[in-house]
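idk why but the lab printer keeps eating my pages so im just putting this in chat instead. protein + tryptophan:
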Amino acid sequence: MEKREGEGEGEEEQVVNPWTVSAKGVGKIDYDKLIDQFGCQRIDQSLVDRIHRLTSRAPHVFLRRGVFFAHRDLSEILDAYERGEKFYLYTGRGPSSEALHLGHLIPFMFTKYLQEAFKVPLVIQLTDDEKCMWKNLTVEESQRLGRENAKDIIACGFDVTRTFIFSDFDYVGGAFYKNMVKVGKCVTYNKVVGIFGFTGEDNIGKVSFPPVQAVPSFPSSFPHLFGGQDNLRCLIPCAIDQDPYFRMTRDVAPRIGYQKPALIEASFFPAMQGETGKMSASDPNSAIYVTDSAKEIKNKINRYAFSGGQDSIEKHRELGANLEVDIPFKYLSFFLDDDAKLEEIRKEYGAGRMLTGEVKQLLIQVLTEIVERHCRARAAVTDELYFHIYCWVNVRDETVVSKVIIVNVTISVNSQLEQNFKLQNPFEKLQLS
Ligand code: TRP
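predcted complex ->
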């Protein structure tokens, strides 16, 4: 995410919005300040404990270790859940690159946990339209990236009987579009400029995009999934840079007779070069990609993962590692499930009894395993699976080839298939209980 010029914020201030994440000076993002600025709440231990109780399972690492650290109205969602009311989850991805890195997977891994723990439906929006405008991609290229990314998303292992994945280019219309217009009518130009910092140079496609990301928060945008359940609540897991979209959504919701969506928000995953660095698509060494080989993972971590260890072994033994800036330790705190082991590393490495090399070794092992598992799962997301997901009907005798639409992933249909089969009545209601 690069800094935009003329955004009206001083160089010194931290800027966090969907397109810019930059800390003050060369420092770290001040998350406490962000919570104040945005007006969301911190997730405290009692909330984590409550989720533990309600779901009868250990909260996800990302919750236990504060990766997801802020929320809006999460307690209300839990109150409703406790009364026996269901809710649904909504998350998304802007398909701007072919390969995803570990940071991209965090919201999806967490969403999978939430879906499993609460047994709730999930909608996933692929904002191919957004990236077409912002990244200057062609319509076709953004759609292609969306499809490729969808495979990675499916590989995270969602419950396919409760999940709907859609591309904006394919799905926007009908009830969804009606909601977009309702939202659009409530937001003035001055308001979007205030929230998103658009300038007179931005194309009007960008200015009119926010309602597209807003309306999946409303169940009536998905009549085929939630028909008749217009009061179903929505919980959105996302990184905190998406908050502006949903501030706008929450502001508008009651004015058009809808519930405000609740949010559960994550901090940013640090770059290999350290928390002040950026994971940048133009620097492949700034992140671990799900397409990296075991050898690449090993080399990247050994060479580029910023170490908080001391320059010499003697000094390290004496002073210990600075865990505040140490990337191998940070990454382990995201991906090493074993709390006791992490605690041991915190103590031993922090006291200088453990060396950076050993911590990196463990990290290489943990990440290689995650990436290899992901690759195996992604390879299993075959085109056949897509076709089963659709409701394909043979054009000759009208027999249904595959019946229930479970995950509606957009795919380009190869021409042969199109000659023989057509897509019919592709939507079925999602299981709510
Ligand atoms: N704008 C997001 C991105 O660029 C994609 C997105 C759409 C999203 N809807 C969302 C992310 C809901 C989180 C939650 O990646």
